[in-house]
Model the fold of this input.
Amino acid sequence: MLVGAFLLNLQTPEGITDAGYRVLVMSIVATILFVTEPIPLPAVALLIMVGQVLLLGTNSNDVAKSIMSDSVLFIMGSLMLAVAIVKQNLDKRIAFFIVKLTGTKTSHICVGISVISGLMASVVGEHTVAAMMLPVALTLIKLTNDDPKQVSQLAAALLFSIAYGCAVASISTPSGGARNAIMIGFWHDFFYDASKPETYKYLVDYVSWILYCFPMFLMQLVVTSFILNRSFTPEYKNLNRSIVKLRIQLAEQGRMGVGDWSTIAIFCTTLYGWIMYSDTIGLGTIALMGSLAFLVLGLVKWEDINTNVNWGVILLYGAAISLGIQMKDTGAATWLANDLINLLSTVGADSGPSLWLAVSVLTTVVTNTMSNGAAVAMLGPVTLNMSVVVGESPLLMGYITAISSSFAYLTVVGTPACTIVYSSGYLKASDFLRVGWKMVISSTTLLMLFAYFYWPLLGL
Done:
C-alpha cells in the first residue's frame, strides 16, 4: 500500500493518461500483494474493486458488471463440481482401476497415475483431481510401507506423477484451469465485435481450444513420465503386496452404488455439454447445470458446497479480469506493451519466435511466484497488446501466455496440485526444484515447437 501511495504521488510518465497510470499502479500493488500475501488474497480483490471506483471514478455498477462474466461463472461452477465429485469417495476404486490397466510394476503405475490425473484434470481442474488422487497415491504408499523413510523415492515418484500430470493437463481444455477461461474472456472483451465477422475467431469455444492445446498435453505427458522415471528410483519396483491389500479393502466396500454411477453420468453429461454447446449457451451455464444436477439428486448438500468452495477465489478472478479490462480501456496495457517491445528490441527479441520465447519465460517466472490465474490476469492484457503493436496474432500470444502460466513446476505454491501433494508430508520443497527445472525446459521447448510448426497448420 505504501508503494502504491508513493507511486501515485509521482508525476505521470509521458505517453500514458492519468487514468492509465493509476490502473498501472493498482496492478503493481495487486501483484505485490499476490506475491507477499500480507492480507488474504480475496481482500486484494476487494481493493481492486474499491480502487476502480475511488481512483478511476468508474461507476460502481459498471465495475460490478465487469466482474461477473461467463468466465467467472465457469470458474464458480467448476469449483462447485469439484466439491461434489470429491464427496463421492471414489479414490480406492480409481487406484484399483489404474492398477488393472497398468499392472503392478511401479514405473507403469506412475505412468498410469500421470495419465489418469491428466485426463481428469483436463476437464475438472487440477486442484480437484489432485484432491481426488492424493488419497489414491497415499493408499498405495501406506499399503507398501508405513515408514516414510523407507518409501521416500516411491512417494516422490507417485506424488509428482499426480502434481505434474495435473499441471501439464491444465492447459488442454478450457475447463482445465481458471487461466484458460480468463484468456478466453480477454479475447472476447478485447477483440470481438459482433458487427465485424472477421473478429468471430476470437470467440474461442471448447473444441477450438482442444485442437490447439490437447496434442501438446499428450506430448507433455510422455515427457513428464520420462523425466520422473529418470529423477527418482523407487525402493519397491513392484507393488504386488499393496494391490492384494487394496483388493481386500474394495471387497469389503462392496459394489459401486447408485450415487457412484450417478456421479459418473453427471460428469460425462457436463463434459458433453462443454464440448457441444459451450459456443451457444456458454461454459459457465453448463458448469452450473452440472452442479445443480448434483444438488437436485441429493448427491451433495448445499452446506458441503458452501463450506468447501473457495468463494474468495471466485471473487479474486472476477476482480482480476475486471482490472485487466481497465488496463485495456485506459491504455495502460498498450503503453506497457510498447515499453516492453522497446526493451526487447534492444536484444532482438521484439518479433517472431524470439518474442514468443520472451513472453513464455516472463510468464513462467511470474506464475512461479503467484497463482497461474493471477499471472494470466496481470500479464494477459499486456501480452495481447504487445501482439497488436508488433503485428503478431493475439490468439497465438494468448495461447503462449496461458500455456506458459502452467509451467509453475519450481515451487510448492506454484500450482494447487503442487501444494496439495506437498501437504502429504512426503516431499521437501527442494524436490520441486530438483525436478521442476527439467520440466520447465522441456515444456518451454515443446511450446515453441507447437507454436512454430503445429499451430500454423490450424491457420494461426
